[in-house]
Amino acid sequence: MYSRVTEFQSSSKTHCDMIIAFFQNVMIPRNLKNGMLSSEIYRVSDTEGFLMSTFKSKNDANSIMKMVANEINEVKGNIKIKFIEGERVFRADQ
Hints:
about 40% helix; four-stranded antiparallel beta sheet; 4 strands; alpha+beta; globular
């Protein structure tokens, strides 16, 4: 299992709302159809949040990243984006 956390920070609440809507309505549904296993959006403040996505493997994560790279670059003009990713080592559920 492989996970990618996409941290995002915008200059305004409106820009943050727009990126969340884009993730929710465009990017996540398309990525799910192309092999992403799951995705969740968290809001930290009016202008910050993160997207947590899981994949079967790093190769799957990278192939989806290639697919959305142009869109991510377009969004970066108004939004600061940082990626943190790696293999899942442990998970606990109740």
